Amino acid sequence: DVKVTQSSRYLVKRTGEKVFLECVQDMDHENMFWYRQDPGLGLRLIYFSYDVKMKEKGDIPEGYSVSREKKERFSLILESASTNQTSMYLCASRTGNSGANVLTFGAGSRLTVL
Amino acid sequence: GEDVEQSLFLSVREGDSSVINCTYTDSSSTYLYWYKQEPGAGLQLLTYIFSNMDMKQDQRLTVLLNKKDKHLSLRIADTQTGDSAIYFCAESKTGSYIPTFGRGTSLIVHP
Which among A40, A61, A112, B30 counts the fewest CB atoms within 10 Å? Predict the structure, then answer.
């Protein structure tokens, strides 16, 4: 069964801490995405990556950075966590082939910043 | 206005049909999607429809597309408590890697 795995389901961090959210996919997908999900706001795209070592800003990149050193792994980094970054973070991937943009999502990482 | 709009909540009785509606603004949308998110989980693709189709059926699910009005709907027949979830409508265009999601409709199924 193909999957996207987010290693941390629940995290509690303090303001100012550096936070790493890891995402690994086993489908050899070229494209990977990080979204955050907040009640009433739906999904907002933070960053995406077309391929290894490539990254593009999404709609809300401020306060975040990403790393894609290997095809299967896409990391989201909060350099200095703040309380307004408390949220559910969803990673997704898709094949780079043209056609339907079907995303495969991980189960999510719920981050609380105190 | 937003690119993809859907109402935030829908409440139905178990056994009834549910209809979740979505409108989108971009007439060049090529594919339209419905994703389901169960509590505590990520999104899972339910179905998608190509823009040259007007209907797609898969067991209890029926997707209707009115391209002229830019309106997409998802009908769930014989709704069960296990159908309680957030349903996201999304659209994408040829050549774009990134689908645009609506805010999601929370479907609440009560006995």
Answer: A40
Q: What is the dihedral of CA B22, B24, B30, B35, to 10 degrees?
A: -40
CB contact under 8 A, A108 and B41: yes
CA pair distance A38, B28, nearest whole angstrom = 28
Question: Positive or negative, the Cα torsion across B74, B79, B82, B84?
Answer: positive
Confidence (pLDDT) at A2: 62
In this complex, which of B42, B92, B103 lies closest to A42 when CB atoms are compared? B103
CA-nearest residue to A96 within chain B is B97
Residues 57-96 of B with CB under 8 A from A: 88, 92, 94-96
Distance in angstroms (rounded) separating the CA atoms of residues B31 and B39: 26
* Per-residue pLDDT tens over the stretch B53-85: 889 999 999 999 999 999 999 999 999 999 999
pLDDT tens per residue across span A39-89: 888 899 999 999 998 999 999 999 999 999 999 999 999 999 999 999 999
Tell me if A94 and B97 make a contact (CB, 8 A cut-off): yes
Tokens 């409440």 correspond to B11
Q: Which two tokens stand for residue A78?
A: 């909060």
Q: Contact A38/B6 with Cβ under 8 angstroms? A: no
Task: Write down the pLDDT at residue B30.
Answer: 83
Most A CBs within 10 A among B37, B53, B86, B97, hence the mutation to make, goes to: B97
